[in-house]
Amino acid sequence: MIDFPTLQTSRLTLREVVESDAENIFRIHGNAEYMRWFGSDPIPDLEGAAKLVATFASWRKEPVSGARWALALRDQPGLIGTCGLFRWNRSWKSCIVGYEITPAYQGRGYVKEALKAIITWGFREAMFNRIEAQVHPDNTASLALLEALGFLQEGRQREAGYWAGRHHDLLQYALLNRQWSAPNEV
Description:
Order of helices and strands: EEHHEEEHEHEE
CATH superfamily of the domain at 7-131: Gcn5-related N-acetyltransferase (GNAT)
Number of helices: 4
Largest sheet: 8 strands, mixed
Number of strands: 8
C-alpha cells in the first residue's frame, strides 16, 4: 500500500495516524482503566505514544501488514480514536479488526460509523474474504457492536491474551465478505 486510503463518512474523516496525533493517542492508550479491554498494557508516556504512531505507520511496509486509521471529526482537528485492519494474511484473504475511542466520545455511534467504512474498504479494495475480531468476554459494548455489524461468534480462545499481569480469555468473532451488506449510515 503506497498511498494511505483516506475514507469519509457523514461525520468522520478516517485518515492516517501521524506524529502530531501522539498526544491524543497517549490520552487513550495511557489510561489504565480504558485499556482494560484493548489487549495491551497502557503506554507509560508521550514517547511510548510516539512509538505506537510509528508502529502504525510501519504496518504498511511489512509483509504481514495493516492499516490504522485516525477517527477525526470532520469539523475538528485531532483524533478521537483509531480503528484498523491488521495482521493481513494475503494468502488467506483475512485480517483482524481493532478499535478504540476516547471515553468522552463513546456511545455516539462513531466507532460503528468508522467500522462500516473500513470493513467496506477491506472487502471491496483490499479484497479480504474474512475479517476477525477477538474481544474480552466482559466487554459487552464491543460485543454488541460487532453483532450489530453482522459478526458471528465462533468460539472462545482460552487464555489467548495477556495484559495487566494476567491471562484473559477472548471470544472469537468473524464476518465474511458474502455476509456483508454495509448497513445504512448511522
